[in-house]
Amino acid sequence: MKKIVTKTIVLFGLIFFMNSCEGYRWAKGTIYDFNTEEPIEGVLCIVKSGRQEQYSDSLGRYDVHNSLGGCMFGCKDIVVEFSKTGYKTKTETNPKDIFLEKE
Questions:
Q1: Helix (H, G, I), strand (E, B) or coil at 54
Q2: What one-character DSSP code corresponds to residue 1?
Q3: Residue 90 per-residue DSSP state
Q4: Are 94 and 69 in contact (CB under 8 A)?
Q5: Digits of tens for pLDDT over the chain (103 positions)?
Q6: Closest Cα partner for 89 from 58, 26, 45, 36?
Q7: What b-and-e string marks burial along 9-46, b requiring 16 or more CB atoms within 10 Å of the CB?
Q8: Whole-number pLDDT of residue 38
Q9: 3 state SS of 96
């Protein structure tokens, strides 16, 4: 009986440990024009380290995340590419506020 209890505790401990290692990194901020410092609407934000993409809203805000993955020794960095016609494309790791320059 004691062996069954010990094995059960070890099994639940392993399940808990493995589940606690899952997570993802989040990135959110505002995208601005480099010269005017005005927010830019409609910037395509592509998560290169995951599978998400979205456009910045009317206030230049974006909010993206990596795919779910292991975080046992820290969640992997999030890499996001920002692009819009008329602006230089910019790729940032763990971005916050972004300033895009015109081409």
A1: strand
A2: -
A3: E
A4: no
A5: 666 767 676 655 555 555 555 556 789 999 999 999 999 999 999 999 878 899 999 999 999 988 656 555 567 788 999 999 999 999 999 999 999 999 9
A6: 45
A7: eeeeeeeeeeeeeebbbebebbbbeeeeeebbeebebb
A8: 98
A9: coil
